[in-house]
Structure formats: structure tokens, C-alpha cells
């Protein structure tokens, strides 16, 4: 059972990369692509965590979730910011 869960986590990780690249190519916007990729990375990390509950696996899941939060918030703020040439003075 552990081997199946670990193989499934690798599948989620690989599909995260592939679907992230596909979303970037289709939508031409990095935020949906990043969100797609990071969600599948989180799924892979949680699957791996269910099979191997060591401190290293817990730390890896925390890092991926934290990275997702930071990247999503910074990209969302960058996309919602008004460009300098459009600001009124």
C-alpha cells in the first residue's frame, strides 16, 4: 500500500508540472498556471505524508504550502497593482 501511495504522489507531482506548463501555454497568465501546479504539489506532498509521517515529510509539506501562499499572494498583489505609467499624479 505504501508503494502505491508513493507512486501516486509522484504522479501528482509530474502532472502538476505538466498541467502548470499547459495552463501557462493555454491561458498565457502565470497565476492560474502557478495555482494549478502548486495545488497538485500540495496533493503530492500530503499523499507522501500519509505514507511516511517522518519529520522530513512534514517539513516538506509545510514548505510547499508556505511557498504556495507566498507566491500566490505576491503574484496577486503584482497583478492588481496599477502600472506606473497609468498612475495619475
Structural summary, described in words:
The protein is mainly alpha-helical. 83% of the residues lie in helices and 0% in strands. The chain is built from three helices and no strands. It has helices at residues 2-27, 30-51, 55-80. The radius of gyration is 17 Å and the shape is elongated. The relative contact order is 0.13. The mean pLDDT is 83.
**Helical residue percent?**
over 70%
Q: What's the helix count?
A: 3
Q: Termini, distance in Å?
A: 63 Å
User: Helices and strands, in N-to-C order?
Assistant: HHH
Per DSSP E runs of 2 or more residues, the count of β-strands stands at 0
Mean pLDDT: 83
Q: Based on helices, strands and strand pairing, what is the structural class?
A: mainly alpha
Amino acid at each position: 500500500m505504501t508503494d502505491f501511495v508513493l507512486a501516486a504522489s509522484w504522479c501528482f507531482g509530474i502532472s502538476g508540472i505538466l498541467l502548470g506548463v499547459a495552463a501557462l501555454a493555454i491561458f498565457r497568465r502565470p497565476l492560474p498556471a502557478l495555482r494549478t501546479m502548486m495545488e497538485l504539489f500540495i496533493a503530492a506532498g500530503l499523499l507522501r505524508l500519509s505514507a511516511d509521517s517522518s519529520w522530513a515529510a512534514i517539513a516538506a509539506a509545510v514548505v510547499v504550502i508556505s511557498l504556495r501562499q507566498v507566491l500566490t499572494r505576491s503574484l496577486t498583489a503584482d497583478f492588481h497593482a496599477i502600472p506606473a505609467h497609468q498612475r495619475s499624479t
